């Protein structure tokens, strides 16, 4: 993966051709080894097969905007745990998460999309998304300093980590959370970016420990 991303970013320079990237903040490798990556400034998601020398657009690439076929700064991406033809895209500056059928012509908003804010039906510059086996979404809502869960089909999120709109370094607060992941025991790990630590939560509930990195 490192070699491929280095090839795109350095070997062909910064740009908008299909063998180039203009800032990349998200990458996902599926079970077949296909690499998906977000091309932030070009407002598109691409995939690359191991045998290919260029990427293939699978979402976006229709300029910057808020229409259903556009992105405004795509960041984190994640393939649905139950259906590898579905990709979730954090459309950060549109304050939403989009669900795309890979290769489709437009996406559907599945979280946020109600302008930026701290209400539980809103997001504020989210950065990362993951899904579980029930297609529930877990989102690092970065500028709200929280992690929220959106149940499949829901129009509102549930606060599971941090305190909405509150920056802090206590056990119940976060400071610009970014990457998130689960382990095999369904513990949630949060990169608490500006607190210079990783937070661990048990099943998205009570915090167990803090690890500085």
From TrEMBL:
Keywords: Repeat. NHL repeats lie at residues 161-204. GO terms for molecular function: zinc ion binding. The keyword Repeat applies. It comes from the Eukaryota. This is NHL repeat-containing protein. The lineage of its organism: Eukaryota, Metazoa, Spiralia, Gnathifera, Rotifera.
